[in-house]
Design a protein that fits this description.
Layout lengths: L4 H21 L13 H6 L14 H5 L3 E2 L9 E3 L9 E4 L2 E4 L8 E3 L6 E9 L4 E8 L12 E5 L35 E8 L2 E6 L2 E7 L3 H8 L16 E4 L6 E10 L3
Antiparallel strand pairs: 1-13, 2-5, 3-4, 4-13, 5-12, 6-9, 6-13, 7-8, 7-12, 9-10, 10-11
């Protein structure tokens, strides 16, 4: 997805300013080595870790209420957006959930819906690749991103969108840029996390909190008003919805997808 050039110019300045303010408030970093970064992290002791085997829950995660969204073999917990089956472009391959262009396209969504949650997964891309992770998705609008805010999945070095913080990896697409580029080289796995509790949303990438915002706050409304999202009344409007993985026409791999429901 790509906002208009005018919107990018306006929003880039806001994103850079917001990122600087967050970094200053945190003493220049969003995570202290060896220390929990939030109340949720104090429960786990680690913002993204706790996994003991690929596509399996460790004892600690199981005790915390995590559940697998993908076991390495079955796509039973997923379906296509606006349909009951899975588009042929998505498949389980070597323990990953992958999209490969050339077959049937389309985004996929979880069969269940989630309100307050802690979502953790890993992703990697082909060179110049693009995908996305959306939440609060409802069906009815033409596309999943017409309702679901997106955490961008991108090869920053190889894709043009990587030059703008608002459309780079980890961004709340088109609205909030990451405080830093902490992506790993293309072809390596990146650890991503989205936490939503009430209207508060955090994006984590490779152990660093890079984005946080309040859905529906005045700042949010002002940013949305300057983008194409303003045309879609369902955008960011639903507390409970599906998690979506985006088909952007590029090869992408996901693994270790797990989620826990949080108390409001």
């Amino acid at each position: 997805m790509r906002p208009s050039a005018a919107a990018i110019a306006v929003l880039a300045a806001v994103a850079v300013s917001a990122a600087c303010n967050r970094s200053e408030a945190a003493g220049g970093a969003d995570r202290e080595p060896g220390a929990p970064a939030s109340a949720d992290d104090a429960e786990t002791g680690d913002p993204v870790g706790g996994q003991e085997a690929m596509n399996a829950l460790g004892e600690r995660e199981a005790s915390e209420g995590f559940e697998l969204l993908f076991d390495g073999e079955s796509l039973d917990r997923w379906r296509g957006y606006g349909r009951d089956d899975v588009p042929a472009g998505w498949r389980a391959e070597d323990g990953t959930l992958t999209f490969a262009p050339g077959a049937e396209s389309g985004d996929i969504i979880t069969r269940e819906t989630f309100a307050d949650f802690d979502l953790r997964l890993e992703w990697k891309l082909e060179p110049s690749g693009n995908s996305g992770i959306m939440y609060g998705v409802v069906e009815g609008p033409e596309w999943s991103y017409h309702s679901g805010p997106e955490m961008q999945v991108l090869d920053n070095a190889g894709h043009a969108d990587g030059a703008n913080p608002l459309t780079s990896a980890g961004a709340a697409y088109g609205l909030y840029g990451p405080s830093a580029d902490v992506t790993r080289p293309v072809g390596e796995w990146n650890e991503a996390r989205i936490v939503r509790r009430g209207d508060h949303v955090e994006h984590w990438l490779n152990g660093t909190r890079i984005v946080e915002y309040e859905l529906g706050a005045e700042e949010w409304k002002a940013l949305v008003a300057d983008t194409k999202f303003a045309r879609w009344p369902d955008y960011g409007a639903h507390h409970e919805g599906h998690i979506a993985l985006q088909d952007h026409g590029d090869r992408v791999w996901y693994r270790n997808l797990r989620i826990r429901r949080l108390a409001p």
